[in-house]
Each structure stands twice: as C-alpha cells, then as structure tokens.
Amino acid sequence: MVEIGHFALVLALALGLVQMTVPLIGARLRDERMMAVAGPVTLAGFAFTALSFAILTMAYAQSDFSLQNVWENSHSLKPVLYKVTGVWGNHEGSMLLWVLILAFFGALVAIFGNNLPTTLRATVLAVQGSIGVAFFLFILITSNPFTRLSPAPIEGRDLNPILQDIGLAIHPPLLYLGYVGFSISFAFSVAALIEGRIDAAWARWVRPWTLVAWVFLTGGIAMGSYWAYYELGWGGFWFWDPVENASFMPWLAGTALLHSAIVMEKRSALKIWTLLLAILTFSLSLLGTFLVRSGVLTSVHAFATDPSRGVFILCILMLFIGGSLALFALRASSLTQGGLFQPISREGALVLNNLFLTTATATVFIGTLYPLLIEAISGDKISVGPPFFNLTFIPLMAPLLLLVPFGPLLAWKRGDVMAVAQRLMFAFAAALVAALVTAFLIDGSSAIAAFGVGLGIWLVIGSLTDLAVKAGLGNVKLPVAWRRFIGLPRSVFGTALAHLGLGLTVLGLVGAICFGAESVLTMKPGQITELSGKRVRFDNVAPVQGPNYNDERAHFSLLGPAGQVRREIWSSRRFYPVRQMNTTEAGIAMLGFSQLYVSIGETTDSGLVVRLWWKPLVTLIWGGGLVMMAGGTLSLLDRRLRVGAPARRSRKGAAKPAAEVA
C-alpha cells in the first residue's frame, strides 16, 4: 500500500510536467485542444496527490513503523487524533500537505475557471503546474515520506511532545492554505505578464483568490499565536521569532495586494503595483518555506536542519522569484497607466495604505534576514529581537491605523477630507474620551497605553461609522436607513468587519502588554496569593497517567470576595518517556475578555514554583483575528466577486443606494 502512495506521487509529478508544458504551448499556438488538456490533467494531478497523502495518513493511523517517517514521528500509544496530525508535524509530511494544497488550488481554478479567457486559464494552470513540479521534485529527491525501514522497528520514537496538541490539527493547514493560496495570485500575475495584457477584469478574477488566501493566513497566524501562548507556558503571544515573521511578511504584503486589487478593479489604476505585489506576496511565502525548512534557523516552529534541502529550496526561490521579477522588468513598461485620480481620494488613501504596509514588510524582512546575512559574511551571531521591531514596526503602523477609518469614506477619484473628518467626529470623540479615561486611571504613567486604547476605539467606532454613513443614518428616516443598511453589498460589511477586527486586536495587545501583571513564587497546598486583585489558592498537586505521558497536575481555585470558588484552574507538567521531554500545560481562567494564566514549574523544598499572569483583554487579540476572517469571508460572498455572475435587479429604496456607496 505504501508503494502505491509513492507511485501516486511520481504520477503526480509526471502529470505536473504535462500541465506545465502542453497548455502553455497551446496558449502560444492558440490551439484549443492543447489548452483543453490543462483542466483534466490538473484534476488528475490533484487526485493522485490526495491519494498519496491519504496513504501516508493511513500509515500513521495504523502505526506502520516500516515507514521511516512514521517511526520517527509516531508511537502506538499516541491518541489517534495526534497520530493523524503527526502527518504534518514533521518536514516530509508537511511538505506533502503543502503540495496537496497547491494541487487543490489548481483543481479549484480548473473547476471554477471556465469563465476565464481560454488562454489565460491555460497559462495560469501551466504556471501553477510548474510550481508543483518543483516541489514534487523536492519531495521525491530530498524529502521522500515513503522511505522504508528494513527490518521494521517494533515501536516508534513518538512525535515532539509540544506538537501533540489540538492546535497543531488546525494551525499548519490554515497557514498552508494561506501560504500556498497566494500561488494563484502569483500564477495570474505571471500569466498576465506572459500575455502582456492586464485590465480591471483581471483584477476581478484575482481578488477572490487573494481574499481566500488572506482569510486562511489570518486564521493560521492567529491560531499559531494562540497555540504558542497556551502550549509553551511562557505567557507570550508574539516574540518576533524569525519563523513567526516568515508568515507575517506575506500577510502584510497580501493585505497591500488586496487593497491594490480593489483600486485596479474599480478604476483600472495601480496595475504595476498590483502585479508586483502579487509576485512579492508569493515570493515571501516561498521565503518562509525556505526559512522553516533550510536549517538556517533554530526555532520551535522550524522543521528541518538539513542544509542540502535548503540549497534545493533556494534554487526554487531563485527560479520563481528571479524569473517572475525578470519577466516583470521586461513587460512592466508596456503596461498602460490606467485611471487618474487626485491624491485626496479613496485611491490615494489605498496607495498610502500600500506604502505603509510595504515599508512595514521591508522592516520585518530586514530584521529577520539581517542576522543571517551577518552570520554568513562574518560568522558572528547576532540577535534582532522585539526592541528593534517595536522601535521600527510600531511607528509605521500607528499613523496607518489612524488613517484607516478615512479610506472607506472617501469618494473615488476626488474626495473631501474635511467632510469625512466631520463624519468621523463621533468616533474621534469616543477615542479621545477613552484615551483620557485610561490616562486618568493609570495616573498618566503610560502615554502609550492611553494612545493605544484610543486607537483601538477609533478603529472600532470608525468601522461602524462607515456602515452608518453608507446607510444614511441621521440623513434619512430610520426605516429608510434600515432598508439601505440591509441592502449594502456584503463586501462593504466585510470591509467594516475587517477594520473592526483590527481595532479589537489593537485593544487586546494594549490591554495585555500595558496593563498585565506577573508574579513568580513558590506555593504550598492551601496557600493563597493575590495578583491584580485576583485571589488564587493552590489546592493540591497529583499524578495523572496519560496515554503516552506522565502528568503532574496542579489544582488551583480563583476565589471571590467572600472566599467562594469562582473558577477552578488546572495546570500541569507532562513527561513523555519515549522522547524524554517535559512540557508545560498552562491553566487559563477566562474572565470576560481577560485571562488569568497559571503555569507551574518544578517542586522544591519550599513548595511548587508557580507563575501567574493577569492579562486584561488578551482574548481580543485572537478574537479580532476571527472577526477579520469573518469580514474576509463575508466579502467573498459578495456577488460582485463572482466572475460572470448576473447582476441583481434593483430593489426599490434599498439596492440603489447600496450600489452608489460600493
């Protein structure tokens, strides 16, 4: 059975070679039959890749230790869920998931791209096929998950304990759906450059695929942050780790690409911007793949440490990034400029947004790669950590976030900034009051905290103001405003939700960083400690036997004013005998949007080492990410993002105003 999985992977490579060449030649020759090959071959390649992945998953579920990959990353006593998630908890299996998602997106284009021009569809699938061929070769040559062991070991070596968590079941697939999803935008850009034609219709085709990838990448980053927060036991949610940055850079560039595509679709402007951003976004995704799998980084998120694999991926990077940028340099000068607009306009606001986002991306890029460059040149090891990013990234983001509510309210082509400022007066007043109240409560000790709270409220109220203004609230009677509100396009709601989610995330970050508290102490059973007005009692600690680990589980109680138990909290230290590793399982008590976080250490003569954190509003960090995902998903449901969808007939009193504000 395992050999069938290996053979299916080889067949997928062969089909990728056909997908890469035949449709592209057909597009150049205008041969309909050759171009028609693209769809069936792409679907067949996806089917064989899915078969290969399913067989590897079955080998994990059945604990087939004759496979080296299963032996190195599984154990017969491991719960079935973690046996399955162990498929992508290692380098070889995660690469197979990577190409499976790549083939899946190609299949989606083959299925839903029938309304694309024939030559464009064929060229897009050919470019997608070329990416697949490169990574199929990489897997088969350097990272084959179907390598056999003879004789087969009786038992496996188990999966890294910190990866035996439900978060691993969600985080990597979401992240890869985002990473790899941008390959479609890249393929559309390269296809447009090959054909030498790009217009508003092209942007309308690209935008949904970009939005899908952005939604998944947002979820992947949020889930990864929360997984690290509760699993690693140090109470942090972002440490500017190079591998974290590797996923954050394509998110920033992808956000800029989304906004640029809107301008191109509406006004046929920013063509060069949009093409370049599509290339750079996927290039940064490939860079993230290189950083995680090349062995140049040491991180809890990194997979491989084999430099030969890094050299292979580096060659792939040079081929696709260098080739696409060379093609861009050759063809960009032939592209027309597109629609003109005044600096004070929605287009101008989106250009400014893109300038800030690309500069922020460059900042993260430099901070991530500079230590690697220095080490390669001089052999010296240096560290670029949070202080650098806090001093460079945050000052770039603050003015951008201040400008975010203005963008959706400005008119296309020529806007009136004073009129928009008047509409945002309530949002400004609410933000100012929130900042002043915060400054008063903390005795003015942190201007940054007060500004951060005001900024979060400004974004939240500003996004709601956008909906209120477009519904005509305050200018028309309430029933008419309601009809206009429910008649607004879904993309308008999606934009407002995304900006609202951004505001919630800002509030969560400010609350956790500026108002949090921490305590490290030793406690004995029955002892009570207090942190930020929260009284916590250590009750007891007891051993618990898990399926493949030994657990030392501590029980805590969060007490109310009268000494009653408000919450029960369990925190534990686990020992995995096979791997000879300890992990910390944090205990978390949710109090509204805030959390009391408990992590235990070793037992000493004076008691159990306990670390307590009080993190106000920290849940909003990830809640804001979910709201942003909901906004992107809602925008995807807008009929105007469905290429070829017929327009709805206007409804009296509702549809017309909605169309005017879109």
UniProtKB/TrEMBL annotation:
InterPro entries recorded: CcmF_C, Cyt_c_assembly, Cyt_c_biogenesis, Cyt_c_biogenesis_CcmF
Signal peptide range: none
Alphabetical keyword list: Cell inner membrane, Cell membrane, Cytochrome c-type biogenesis, Membrane, Transmembrane, Transmembrane helix
Membrane topology: Multi-pass membrane protein
Residues in Cytochrome c-type biogenesis protein CcmF C-terminal domain copies: 314-639
Segments crossing the lipid bilayer: 6-25, 37-61, 95-113, 120-141, 174-194, 206-228, 248-265, 272-291, 311-330, 351-373, 393-412, 424-442, 448-469, 490-513, 617-637
Span of domain Cytochrome c assembly protein: 88-294
The keyword Lipid biosynthesis belongs to this UniProt entry's keyword annotation: no
Transmembrane helix among keywords: yes
Subcellular location: Cell inner membrane
Broad class of the protein's primary localization: membrane
Function: Required for the biogenesis of c-type cytochromes. Possible subunit of a heme lyase.
Family under the similarity heading: Belongs to the CcmF/CycK/Ccl1/NrfE/CcsA family.
Protein name: Cytochrome c-type biogenesis protein CcmF
Species, as recorded: Aquamicrobium ahrensii
